[in-house]
Task: inverse folding
């Protein structure tokens, strides 16, 4: 059993408690399988498809720090730049005990596809340290973050590669990264990271942006399959910044949140939770575990929930073939990165369950990160209403193009998303040419 974390909160890295997870899988092989499925639709650009299967640059760094007790510990850190054809690398930094180079490679590749799918001027990157952030004091966490930033400083920068928060990291960690990079370069560089605190150049709307993107794409998908959100039952796995925000927005549209699962437990209520009570409980306790507004059930029972919409918003590899066979939903919205194995994708297609893939569904976060980056360069900041309107338009327009592609080729939304994104990536690769 692995011990995943949910999305970080603004107050610090999430605690890591175990809940039921599937057997280990290879996220990189999942990604490669997705590339193979889209290659037949790339036409003349297929000659460049091998580009998508090879990260441009992978950096492994040793991160030694002095602990509070005077001892020295070493942590292994990574930063992978998968593809930079369309612009600087963009992707989060993950602190988790299960971080591996292979996982970071896959996450960086999905960032390449995601950024191209919503037509942002970025390539894909990702980073991480193999560590349980719960085990460190705040000062140890700061020392580790600053040393890691110094080690990867040779490849990051506002025009090179821009990190952001991910699992186990948050705005405070981004502030330390920004300060370290700035001290090493001799000038304040607010654009080197996104997801920063507001008073350091962060953007309004960033915290809930990923969850908002899940809601916007889910709303559009539901409309296309004639599923009314008012009264629709929704099950959410992962109740942090992504799942929790999406749940609140679906509830605001009249949906019933009937199941919630995170690292602290699983609760169900067929009549729907009182969302104000549930969100207050999550804020006060750090998770859904112990919430009295529903029945506590074994973690694996989450996948048997009677509902119309399922939102996996935890970690990758959650949707296996057995779980896909048990789903009762009509619509699956991937709030997490890589939550569905390729074989499970096939099962859900056969069963008529529509999957809105991660590389478009959860792209709201990186879209508002792009807004933050632009605002930092201009030193002119937008209102939250402006940000949400711009985000909604980008997400709706991107999904419309992907849906048209899926209809034209009679392929899944995932393959269509990859087709649209990979065409943009490989066109840039072809037009730039090879140097030297």
Result:
């Amino acid at each position: 059993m692995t011990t995943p974390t949910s999305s970080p909160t603004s107050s610090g890295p999430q605690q890591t408690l175990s809940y039921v997870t599937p057997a280990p899988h290879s996220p990189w092989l999942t990604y490669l399988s997705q590339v193979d499925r889209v290659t037949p639709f790339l036409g003349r650009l297929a000659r460049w498809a091998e580009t998508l299967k090879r990260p441009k640059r992978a950096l492994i760094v040793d991160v030694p720090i002095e602990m509070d007790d005077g001892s020295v510990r070493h942590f292994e850190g990574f930063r992978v730049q998968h593809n930079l054809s369309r612009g600087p690398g963009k992707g989060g930094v993950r602190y988790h005990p299960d971080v591996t180079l292979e996982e970071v490679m896959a996450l960086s590749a999905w960032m390449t596809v995601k950024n191209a799918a919503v037509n942002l001027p970025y390539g894909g990157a990702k980073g991480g340290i193999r560590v349980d952030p719960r085990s460190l004091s705040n000062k140890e966490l700061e020392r580790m973050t600053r040393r890691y930033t110094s080690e990867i400083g040779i490849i990051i920068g506002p025009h090179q590669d821009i990190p952001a928060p991910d699992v186990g990291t948050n705005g405070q960690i981004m502030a330390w990264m920004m300060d370290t990079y700035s001290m090493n370069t001799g000038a304040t560089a607010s654009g080197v990271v996104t997801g920063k605190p507001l008073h350091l150049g962060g953007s309004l709307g960033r915290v809930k942006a990923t969850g908002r993107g899940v809601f916007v794409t889910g709303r559009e998908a539901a409309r296309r399959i004639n599923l009314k959100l008012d009264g629709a039952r929704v099950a959410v796995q992962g109740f942090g910044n992504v799942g929790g925000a999406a749940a609140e927005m679906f509830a605001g549209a009249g949906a019933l949140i009937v199941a919630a699962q995170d690292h602290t437990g699983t609760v169900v209520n067929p009549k729907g939770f009182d969302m104000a009570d549930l969100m207050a409980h999550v804020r006060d306790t750090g998770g859904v575990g112990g919430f009295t507004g529903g029945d506590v059930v074994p973690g694996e029972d989450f996948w048997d929930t009677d509902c119309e919409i399922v939102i996996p918003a935890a970690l990758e590899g959650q949707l296996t073939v057995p779980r896909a066979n048990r789903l009762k939903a009509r619509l699956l919205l991937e709030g997490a990165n890589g939550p569905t194995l390729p074989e499970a994708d096939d099962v859900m297609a056969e069963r008529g369950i529509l999957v809105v893939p991660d590389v478009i569904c959860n792209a709201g976060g990186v879209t508002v990160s792009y807004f933050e980056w632009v605002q930092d360069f201009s030193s002119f900041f937008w209102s939250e209403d402006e940000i949400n309107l711009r985000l909604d338009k980008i997400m709706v327009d991107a999904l419309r193009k992907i849906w048209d592609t899926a209809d034209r080729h009679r392929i899944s939304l995932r393959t269509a998303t990859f087709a649209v994104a990979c065409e943009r990536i490989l066109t840039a690769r072809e037009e730039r040419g090879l140097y030297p």
Q: What stands out?
A: The first helix runs from residue 27 to 38. The chain has a mean pLDDT of 94.
